[in-house]
Design the sequence.
């Protein structure tokens, strides 16, 4: 029996897979197709933001998903309440102990922290306005020279 046949027989008997392709000629990989899914990249954009801006007049940009627009309920002291001359009052619920939301709201004059400590970033101010849990702080919209544009909420504690 020629040597090559003996090696094939031995490989078959021991369960070793043997390729019929000649050595030195690797199998060609199939080319990638356009139908392959693209990787998912989270941009943290606020879901439904265009509809909220159209109906409520507030621009919700992006966040970590833990600060969500909610119906204001006088009996719910957990909510962050934003009071605006231009847009009226609106509230946010915080899911978990901390959250972040970038937004753009004109004419804000007061922010109530609810059950969390809240840092309110206002356009034109170098440092955020710190609002402790259970308190409210003014946001300068009463002064016509300052627009009171809130651009960020950061909640912590609770």
Sequence:
């Amino acid at each position: 029996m020629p040597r090559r046949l003996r090696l094939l027989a031995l490989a078959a008997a021991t369960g070793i897979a043997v390729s019929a392709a000649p050595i030195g000629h690797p199998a060609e990989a199939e080319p990638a197709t356009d139908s392959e899914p693209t990787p998912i990249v989270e941009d943290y954009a606020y879901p439904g933001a265009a509809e909220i801006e159209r109906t409520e007049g507030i621009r919700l940009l992006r966040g970590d998903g833990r600060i969500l627009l909610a119906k204001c309920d006088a009996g719910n002291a957990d909510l962050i309440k934003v009071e605006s001359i231009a847009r009226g009052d609106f509230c946010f619920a915080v899911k978990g102990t901390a959250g972040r939301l970038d937004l753009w709201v004109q004419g804000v004059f007061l922010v109530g922290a609810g059950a969390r400590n809240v840092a309110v970033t206002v356009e034109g101010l170098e440092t955020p306005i710190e609002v402790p849990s259970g308190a409210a702080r003014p946001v300068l919209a009463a002064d016509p020279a300052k627009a009171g544009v809130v651009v960020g909420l950061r909640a912590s504690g609770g």
Q: What stands out?
A: The longest strand covers residues 88-94.
